[in-house]
Amino acid sequence: MHSVGGFSGGARPTRGRGTGGSKVDQAYLALKRAIVSGTLAPETPIDKNEWCARFDVSKLSITTAINRLAFDGLVVVEPQRGSYVARIHLEDVRQWMLMRRALEVEVVGVCAASMSDDAIAALGQNLAYQKAATASGDLEGFHELDTRFHHQMTESLSLARVGEALDTIRTHLERVRRTLLPEPGRPKGTYMEHEAIYRGIADRDPDQARVEMANHLDRVARELQTFVEKHPGFFEG
Questions:
Q1: 74 - beta bridge partners?
Q2: What one-character DSSP code corresponds to residue 18?
Q3: Which residues form the HTH gntR-type domain (predicted)?
């Protein structure tokens, strides 16, 4: 398996074969996934020659993909140093987390008051899958269930605009969430917090549901601060 700047991938796409989007789009999305997932850590150099070989495209095409990532704030391009993965802007993260807390605490209160019995049952099923993923050590599966757990709340209430706002915030926070999840005890802790949130909803207790959601998100904020102190090179600002 070929390793590209610390990111392992399979065989490169065949020239001319339709694999969904242009080669530039494919390179952009692959690099973005690697950065957001933490596979490419902050400060990791991006070797254009290796990515050209991987996607069978010109250096200009890879440069275009990298420039898009720079616009997204995920890559830094410096004339003398080249391109490398950007560090996470700590002040931005704090503001995104503040916005997420304000929205999700209110949403969960509405869920406890108005969510249908079927939607609550579906939330409970998600929770059961989370427990299984935690027990088996399936971090990727747990991450997907974690994201889905929060999505189910806005979807069940048809809060499309609120869901869109939260999706934007979560995208910005994805690198942080992926970084924290492998920390010892984090998946189990997240599952237990989700269980408490679910109980507040199932008991039709809006105040308790809000308290548990606030506790959940506040714990993430505290753990982020601890992580920053341990790994200052990942962040700036």
A1: none
A2: -
A3: 21-88
Segment 121-133 mean pLDDT: 98
- Give the residue from 11, 91, 120 showing the smallest Cα distance to 56: 11
Q: In the chain, what are the domain boundaries?
A: 2-86, 89-236
Residue with tokens 């506790």: 215
CATH class of the domain defined by 89-236: mainly alpha
> 């606030």: which residue's tokens?
214
Backbone angles phi, psi at 116, to 5 degrees: -70, 160
In this structure, what token pair is assigned to residue 52? 């050209």
24-43 tens-digit pLDDT: 888 898 898 888 878 888 89
What gap in Å lies between CA 113 and CA 71, rounded to an integer?
Answer: 41
pTM comes to: 0.72
Residue 58, both tokens = 């010109």
Question: Which tens digits make up the pLDDT trace of 171-209?
Answer: 778 787 776 666 677 889 999 999 999 999 999 999 999
Taking Cα atoms as reference points, which of 172, 191, 171 lies closest to residue 181? 191
d(CA 75, CA 140): 24
What are 17's two structure tokens? 């074969």
Class of domain 2-86: mainly alpha
